């Protein structure tokens, strides 16, 4: 899986994922539609704190390799990386294609 981190996600999350061998690209100054377009173009799963991405009419899950919306507040690095690690381990085989994931500190919700 390849990921695209929205600018609202800490760069240290990108560093952590890269250290784990994950292909990660970050954005800076991109609008939601630019992030969405780049994710589709490069077949990357966007990771964001922006709840606009949960709008299934604007961002239909079927059009993406997955979407991860973080709902971890405050955005503490350890809590975020632990939640992402758990999610990636549980979805490793099935993948996230066509799914939107709302990721919280201790659980996640998947919609298709």
Largest sheet, order of strands side by side?
A: 2-1-3-4-5-6
User: On the 0-100 scale, what is the average pLDDT?
Assistant: 94
Helix content: 25-40%
Strand content: 15-25%
The rough form would be described as globular
**Largest sheet geometry:** 6 strands, mixed
Number of domains: 1
Task: Report the count of strand segments.
Answer: 6
What structural category arises from helix and sheet content? alpha/beta
CATH-scheme architecture: 3-Layer(aba) Sandwich
Succession of helices and strands: EHEHEEHEE
CATH fold category name: Rossmann fold
CA radius of gyration: 12 Å
The CATH class turns out to be: Alpha Beta
Short key terms for the protein model shown above:
single chain, 6 strands, globular, 112 residues, alpha/beta, 3 helices
Q: What is the fold's blueprint, element by element?
A:
Layout: E1 2-5, H1 11-19, E2 23-26, H2 32-41, E3 45-48, E4 67-70, H3 77-91, E5 100-103, E6 108-111
Parallel strand pairs: 1-2, 1-3, 3-4, 4-5
Antiparallel strand pairs: 5-6
Can you walk through the features of this model?
With 112 residues, the protein is an alpha/beta fold. The protein has one domain: Rossmann fold (3-Layer(aba) Sandwich). It is built from 3 helices and 6 strands, in the order E-H-E-H-E-E-H-E-E. The chain is globular and about 30 Å long.
């Amino acid at each position: 899986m390849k990921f695209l981190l929205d600018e609202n996600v800490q760069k240290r999350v990108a560093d952590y994922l890269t250290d784990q061998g994950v292909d990660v690209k970050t954005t800076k100054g991109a609008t939601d539609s630019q992030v969405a377009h780049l994710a589709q173009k490069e077949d990357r799963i966007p990771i964001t704190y922006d709840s606009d991405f949960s709008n299934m009419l604007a961002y239909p899950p079927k059009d993406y390799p997955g979407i991860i919306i973080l709902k971890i507040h405050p955005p503490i690095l350890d809590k975020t990386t632990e939640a992402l690690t758990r999610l990636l381990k549980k979805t490793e085989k099935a993948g996230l294609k066509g799914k939107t994931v709302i990721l919280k500190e201790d659980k996640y919700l998947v919609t298709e």
